[in-house]
Specification:
Layout (H helix, E strand, L loop, with lengths): L6 E6 H5 L8 H15 L2 E6 L8 E2 L5 H15 L2 E5 L3 H7 L6 E2 L1 H9 L1
Parallel strand pairs: 1-2, 1-4, 2-3, 4-5
Length: 114
């Protein structure tokens, strides 16, 4: 029996954590996503602008949107299935074309908190 292909989930961290008030803390979001990813058997990449807490990716000198767009293109070219988590329409346009699914930040956060 052939093993299922790995799925990568690209998470626009600030978009997700700011989708509710009060905002979810940076470290709390990373922990929630890590737990969810283990349960779902996916690889989650939580991307923050600039620096990031442990367990996440910091975009460094570029914006998180640019980092996610570049990673989405890289995954598409490699034939890797990916999902995108963001409510940002521009990021959805730039990085969502090759995504298996695109989920809004608020919807994703509600799932994490359920």
């Amino acid at each position: 029996m052939k093993a299922a292909a790995a799925v990568t989930v690209l998470v626009d961290a600030e978009n997700v954590r700011r989708s509710t008030w009060p905002n979810v803390g940076r470290e709390e979001l990373v922990g929630l996503v890590e737990r969810w990813a283990r349960q779902e058997a996916v690889t989650a990449v939580v991307v923050f602008d600039g620096t990031a807490p442990e367990g996440a990716v910091g975009s460094g000198w570029q914006s998180a949107d640019d980092w996610i767009t570049g990673k989405a293109a890289e995954l598409s070219e490699a034939g890797v299935t990916y999902r995108l988590v963001t409510s940002d329409r521009e990021l959805r346009r730039r990085a969502g074309g090759g995504a298996e699914t695109v989920v809004g930040g608020g919807r994703f956060l509600r799932e994490l908190l359920a």
